[in-house]
Amino acid sequence: MRKYEGRTVGLYTKVSPEEKEVIDRKMALLGTINLRAYLRKMAVDGYVVQLDMSSVVELVKLLRSISSNVNQIARRCNSTHNLYAQDVEDLRQGYTEVWQGISELLKKFETL
To answer: Structure pTM?
Structure first.
């Protein structure tokens, strides 16, 4: 069964040209062109949130890099029994960058 087959109640409304322009701008910001889907989503959920996930992707890349560094340092420590100050500082700097990124991301979430 197609998901739209159960939709049997029609809702009709009129808007002013100014309201239509606002709707069009919001749809463009969301990146959607399906007016019916947009209006249905707004009416059912009350809001639509579009997230820019690029900062999350960057944080994940940074975390993977740090994880790789930790593994390499652990292997070297296990084989040579040496831990270098520069290794510790590199990890500290990476974690600082991660926490800064998370803080910025949380500030963005606060504005939603």
So the answer is: 0.52
C-alpha to C-alpha distance for 61 and 55, rounded to whole angstroms: 10
Rounded (10°) angle between helices 54-80 and 85-110: 160
Name every residue whose Cβ is closer than 8 Å to that of residue 76 and which is 6 or more positions away in sequence.
Answer: 82
The answer to whether the beta carbons of residues 62 and 96 sit under 8 Å apart is no
Which residues, other chains included, contact 48 with Cβ-Cβ below 8 Å and sequence gap of 6+? 30, 38, 41, 42
Residue with tokens 């990124």: 101
Question: DSSP class of residue 10?
Answer: -
Helices (H) and strands (E) in the chain, counts: 4, 0
Measuring CA to CA, which residue among 50, 84, 89 is closest to residue 66? Answer: 89
d(C-alpha 91, C-alpha 67), whole Å: 9
- The pLDDT tens digits for 8-49 are 888 888 999 999 999 999 899 888 899 988 888 888 887 767
